[in-house]
Design brief:
alpha/beta, Rossmann fold, 7 helices
């Protein structure tokens, strides 16, 4: 069995987002980190591989900084890695899914795992879009996985209000992994050194034959309108309450 894990390099929360004169996001000052949800997907893939004699391939589409994420996946125990350099697909779930699906068609994995969402955009769309494009069964919010008889997966999903549901899924399938499913391992020194020696398979967009131009058109990006400065009320409780009521009634028109 071959398992593929989708990994993403996400923009660090401290990164400042600015637009250039053409309304495009300036990316050159961004700092990236590994998407936390993907660590749980990698850990689960490795555990399944260890129990079922499978191979794990980690896959990423994005900027060059995504290579470090793949290296961590290799250090944790993944067999190999595939990287598609693509700077412009970080903010578009549909295009990202097209590129990832085209990459996975080359690998023909039996099972694909992905984090339930990304730390930066949090759309929870890429995984299910990839499954649709590949024609795979999709199960989201997974908190338990076991391989049953005849390769059928016994999967537990997290629902609202603390509820759960168990489903059986036939391969090929794609699962989006929720936190709490496992405890991601720390890469050993041996694993880190071995990961540095492993070659990543680089696949250029031109090799995939994916036309993403027609999927999403960005019409305009702009900053949100400036907010008014806070109105500070001073004085004793009676004076503040009186002034607040007057503001709410006469300026905000909510009373």
């Amino acid at each position: 069995m071959r398992i593929a894990v989708l990994m993403k390099a996400v923009v660090e929360p401290e990164s400042r987002i600015e637009l250039d004169d053409d309304g495009r996001v300036r990316r050159h000052d961004f700092c990236y980190q590994l998407n936390d949800y993907d660590l749980y997907a990698v850990e689960e893939a490795i555990r399944l591989a260890e129990a079922n004699e499978a191979e794990v391939t980690v896959v990423s589409v994005g900027p060059e900084e995504a290579v470090q994420s793949l290296r961590k996946g290799l250090a944790m125990g993944a067999t190999d890695a595939v990287f598609v350099p693509a700077e412009d697909f970080l903010d578009d779930a549909a295009s990202s899914a097209e590129v990832l699906a085209a990459t996975l068609r080359r690998l023909q994995p039996d099972l694909v795992l992905a984090g339930v969402e990304s730390d930066d955009l949090g759309t929870s769309q890429v995984g299910v879009l990839v499954a649709e494009l590949l024609g795979y069964a999709a199960v989201t919010m997974v908190i338990g996985v076991a391989v049953g008889d005849d390769g059928v997966l016994n999967v537990r999903r997290e629902l609202e209000a603390g509820n759960f549901v168990d489903v059986d899924v036939r391969l090929p399938a794609l699962l989006t992994i929720q936190t709490g499913l496992n405890e991601p391992r720390y890469p050993s020194l041996k694993g880190i050194m071995a990961a540095k020696r492993k070659e990543l398979v680089r696949v250029e967009l031109s090799e995939l034959g994916v036309d993403t131009e027609h999927l999403v058109e960005t019409i305009e990006l702009s900053y949100p309108p400036p907010r008014e400065r806070a109105h500070m009320l001073e004085g004793g409780p009676d004076a503040v309450v009186g002034e607040l009521v007057t503001l709410l009634r006469e300026k905000e028109k909510v009373l």
